[in-house]
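hey can u run this one w/ DTB bound, need the structure tokens asap thx
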Amino acid sequence: MNAPVDFSLRFDWRVEEIVVLHDQPLLDLVAQANAVHRRFHDVNDVQKAALLSIKTGGCPEDCSYCPQSAHHREVKLDRVDLLETAEVLAAAKTAREAGADRFCMGAAWRSAPDGARFDAVLDMVRGVRALGMEACVTLGMINPSQAKRLVDAGLTAYNHNLDTGPEFYSEIITTRTYQDRLDTLKAVRGAGLEMCCGGIIGMGESVRDRAGMLQTLASFDPHPESVPINALVAVEGTPLAGRAQIDPLDLVRMIATTRIVMPKSRVRLSAGRSSLSREAQILCLVAGANSIFYGEKLLTTDNAGINEDDALFAAIAARDASASAA
Ligand code: SAM
Ligand code: DTB
Ligand code: SF4
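ok here u go:
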């Protein structure tokens, strides 16, 4: 007999409990996650979030996975200063016409600057909202006053990831601490912004480290409104370039566990999707993912293409009678 599914919202998960959930037989884990998913969401509602890099490369942080860090000199990447607002809004409009619900803008900054560049980002946020889309930005660390100005401009959510568990974190980033990240998240929540916060798997961390990240995320009350789960995109020239791609079923387990510990959050199947088969992606949706990055590009690397994604959505949609008869 399978154990009954626990639908309660909890903020006191222990790492060990999360490891047990994660490591149970895959079919039990996916069934449990799907039951939680159905209880709290319309499973056919999959959010499409478009992503644009508004300021690319030259970042002073040393995040070992990131092609935009100035520390990784071997990476072939052209630096691009902050884009013009008109260019960003044109991209948002194109994304909306392609069917995106949310427009996310990323800048390779250690922390958001004040002054003209911040004002330009506020304009971009206002413009995206005026197009009728949700707006999300990720600008590095922000303080409470910047968070307040973003709220006033109409920002829906702020993305700032924990990336991994607290014990593994220093293996990946040395230029800012876990506590720095938590302080930014406090400013985000304090201003009343939705919190978009998740991390990456496939960087050499253990299941316990993954569980440690989920434990920290699930200790926020309320839970983060969105949780992006990225699979490492191992970019040539970064310290993690040699890392083997994760087994897609590891991603399924991570997504299912995220769904169970944060039942109401939008769990986003994020970077790394382009190397997954259609079936592996669908298994992630069954396991509780209900958002994807939609568009040809992530920030600097390729995403699954729009045509492939449209085919994916067509494959999971209801069939009309003539199609089933064929
Ligand atoms: N500079 C800002 C910051 O770090 O907060 C915003 C942009 S940063 C690129 C946003 C997130 O993208 C990172 O926290 C990380 O989780 C994810 N990311 C970056 N490079 C990645 C890669 N190669 N593979 C998977 N995820 C990645
Ligand atoms: C997130 O968790 N993943 C996105 C978004 N938030 C900003 C970024 C993924 C970046 C993948 C590597 C790249 O394209 O540079
Ligand atoms: Fe900079 Fe963000 Fe990349 Fe880290 S993840 S190097 S902070 S752009």
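The first helix runs from residue 15 to 23. anyway lmk if its weird
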